[in-house]
Amino acid sequence: MIITTTNTVQDKTISEYKGIVFGEVITGINMFKDMGAGLRNMFGGRSKGYEEELTKAREEAIAEMSDRAEQLGADAVVGMKMDYEVLGSDNGMLMVSCSGTAVRLR
Questions:
Q1: Please, what is the average pLDDT of the chain?
Q2: What does pTM read for this prediction?
Q3: Where does the source fall among the domains of life (predicted)?
Q4: What 3-state DSSP class applies to 70?
Q5: So where are the chain's domains?
């Protein structure tokens, strides 16, 4: 499955538009990662735990979108866009969503 942020795929022609597809992941950040991030916030540095959780959520959202495009008979997703949100009363949840247009290529 080709996934691109552009509206076309180089050297390919879009033969059919299958529809808009989405991938969404909402994940909780565990308290140990949260404590480590709080210390890094105070003293500086990168939060490896948060970075790993973000990477995992991003990869899962793309995989979900790709699966949905495949179910429609698409072989590519063009115009992919990704968004991130922090949710929950204590901002303890991370939402990653992506969307794009599922297409068939010639």
A1: 87
A2: 0.82
A3: Bacteria
A4: helix
A5: 2-105
Find, among 59, 82, 72, the residue nearest to 102 by Cα.
Answer: 72
Q: Which residue has the tokens 């909402």?
A: 26
The answer to whether residue 43 scores a pLDDT higher than 90 is: no
Report the topology of domain 2-105. Translation Initiation Factor IF3 (3.30.110)
Tell me if 87 sits within 8 A of 94, measured CB to CB.
yes
Cα–Cα distance, 31 to 42 (Å, whole number): 17
User: What is the spatial distance between Cα 76 and Cα 31, in angstroms, rounded to a whole number?
Assistant: 38
Q: Residue 65 in 3-state DSSP?
A: helix
Rounded CA gap, 106 and 99, in Å?
A: 22
Checking DSSP bridges between strand 14-28 and strand 93-105, what pairing results, if any? Answer: antiparallel
